[in-house]
Automatic annotation (TrEMBL), chains A, B:
One Pfam family recorded for the sequence: TetR_N
GO biological process: negative regulation of DNA-templated transcription
DNA-binding region: 43-62
Location of the HTH tetR-type domain: 20-80
UniProt entry tagged with the keyword DNA-binding: yes
Protein name: TetR family transcriptional regulator C-terminal domain-containing protein
Keywords carried by this UniProt record: DNA-binding
Gene Ontology MF terms in the entry: DNA binding
Amino acid sequence: MTQPTSAVKTPPRRNDATRARNEQAILTAAERIFARHGYRGASVQAIAEAAELPKSNVLYYMGSKQALYVRLLARMMKRWNALLDDISVEDDPAEVLTAFIERKMQLSRRHPEGSRLFAAEILGGAPFLQEYLHGELREWVEGRARVFEQWAERGLMDPVNPVWLIFLIWSSTQHYADFEAQVLGITGKDALDDADTEEITAFLTRVVLKGCGVQSRQKAPPERKMPSYSVRNDA
Amino acid sequence: MTQPTSAVKTPPRRNDATRARNEQAILTAAERIFARHGYRGASVQAIAEAAELPKSNVLYYMGSKQALYVRLLARMMKRWNALLDDISVEDDPAEVLTAFIERKMQLSRRHPEGSRLFAAEILGGAPFLQEYLHGELREWVEGRARVFEQWAERGLMDPVNPVWLIFLIWSSTQHYADFEAQVLGITGKDALDDADTEEITAFLTRVVLKGCGVQSRQKAPPERKMPSYSVRNDA
DNA sequence: GTCTATACAAGGATAGAC
DNA sequence: GTCTATCCTTGTATAGAC
């Protein structure tokens, strides 16, 4: 960014690719280390080793440990915001809630480290995310909550507290990323595959929709392929 | 333990009370610090300051940072086990699930720091709890799962995957301790009071029971006081 | 632009004074 | 039994060699 595009002296040339590659390696490694040990517990040394780079290289690229951490948090918030599209009273409750649960599950599944990074930040009292939680996110929740209330008034779902409902969806989906170690320990699996994820998504969708008495205003109820699991899936 | 009960020379006498008081202070302080920063991120220094004792005093009483941490984990597992009573097919599904959700909420509410300590441990890959997760806890889950399955066979509830159901209850209740910072940020509250906790418990009970088609084999359905919240409870 | 060498604070743990 | 002083490691960050 600081370099003119067509400088007379072009010393950094093939280094652009190196830089991009190194930055990527650092970000990926750091997300894992921060997720695992929290901000304080993570050491630049450990991040550097995971990225297979010298320690000072990490600081050279990222400026400081804190800058790196904040950058990762921002990246995760960006991913998060990407699936927070607007909804209106006119939308179909069943469809909206189904899509909500599905996307949230996918986010946790695609970015488990980022998910845990976020969790660790909140667990520690959210020192870097106070503003976000009290501002942007709160407004988003209130907007959705108002729509849920209107649906309830129109008899499209039970009159449940919409905020608790949002928390229910967040927590139950987030669980599979944040508590992965527990999930794997109990199920005896090495990892959850796509089939597991689909089954869990179907289960959560079913319970939430039925539990809140959500009506589909379209044709058939959107109850996805009946999640009556066929075989017990432990070790 | 190393001291004979009736030694001729009884040098430690009035110190017993001091010791008990100091140990208690350390355990309370350490639980908070470990919960907030994880095992690595927590420093003995910070724990000592929170307990208002010199650093080496903490190590003197507890032996080492790791011993202190393990002790706190064990204490939390003990609290946890205390509410894991046995159930049988003969029990009433609605009652059992209601009690389950209620107790789990109470545990998170009474011991939020312990709850977060546990969460941080799992988030970090559960290095100290591998055995517990793969052994004791797994067996407990399997036992309960079998009962849920039998209930489903008898038509007392829908044939949902019992393991996902247990995870749903764990995650949705745990959320209010672990993600407290987020919950407070979004609701605009300073803290959740007893009324909030009761309302949330009622909401979760309702959604889970209804969502899983749980039948009460007794008289009236155990739907606790209808949780149709009356007033929006944000700031 | 990259990395080795180093500065200086904070980490866990212990020896020894009181 | 308690706490000060100290050891050695590890932490973040930077200066300067290449």
